[in-house]
Amino acid sequence: MSARTLLGLWLMALSPTPALADDFVPDDVIVSDPARDLPPPEFDQRTHRVIWQDRVNKLWVADVDVVTGDIEPFNGKGTLVDSGLTPGYEIKNTPRYAWGAGEGAIVYNKTINGIRTLAKAVEVAPNIWDTSLLENGEDRWKANGSPEETTDAARIVYSYKRPAGDTVVGWRDLDDPASEQIANVISHGGRFFGAEPAVIVTDKDQYHVTQIYHVPFATGIPEQVSFGPYNKANAFVWFAPEYEQYLIVAMVRFTELAIYGRVGGAWRRITQFAIPSAKPLLSSPEAFVANGKSYIAVVTCDELGAGGFAGQPVGPSEIWLAGIDPDAPFFRRIDDPSYEAQRSEPEPFLLDSGPVVYYTELSSFIRLLKRAATGLAM
User: Fold this and answer.
1) Who wins on pLDDT, 12 or 183?
2) Residue 12 belongs to what domain range?
3) Is the pLDDT of residue 8 over 50?
């Protein structure tokens, strides 16, 4: 897509009039053991697996049946990978995959002598895992891994408490501590900018507003992506085929979604919109692609702050899809609307039949894993 076309799209109305999609009927089912707790897992499309950390800080791997969409086994406890993980509430994160050059590892934290330390697990044979602490992994936590399209070494980006006592964002090749680079930004971790050599972080601008920054590996100098008077949060990166580039979605003051991309080499906001739900606040946006078009799965709610996490929903919540085309607004609620529940952490996933969204639902203090159809073509 040309810069002129992108610019034309950007100049369209930034807040399109909400337009509900069609007569879609939600198809929303429980896929975990209703009698057992299954905290929010991380899904991996490449291996058709879920990885998750239980209440007693054990790391588990289970399979996803790409035909039925079921979790096997349905309690999520397929293979025990490791134990003694740092509690998630301490690092504000869950175990993640890191990919590179066709090989992958699970990255997570263990507390060693009171120090948060990065660790990894590598599958050396089917369902056989080798675990180890990362060299120079001390005082580093909340790791995110490089995505599956990464062609060179697997990488991680994380929070790092330096000997001086300040916390910054660092990144490195997974197995090469000497490759570590630092961005002096006030941020809590970051994400890789797809397979490109850069990370996305947040920091305060000169007006003390939290903005999104793109930090190239080559320079280490943050380039400001977002502008304006309101805080931005939860920046998520994906490759949008209709724009032929990586885009970023983020929440603006937790009430609207904004999409950012490059136009003529400069960062621009392509569109910004609210979700047409009676619940005005947003949580955990994640993008995915179906039939060549980009969509965002996101939670709507009335209150945030569950479990000490600023962006997690409290009380009744809903799961929505939104399109990103500013000229053709698309919105669809996909969870079961017949009852209220606290719903969180949407995870888009592609089955053989098309995309679905898994998410967590709180039921009598048990966290269930549910799967919602999207009604979208592949």
Assistant:
1) 183
2) 1-30+228-378
3) no
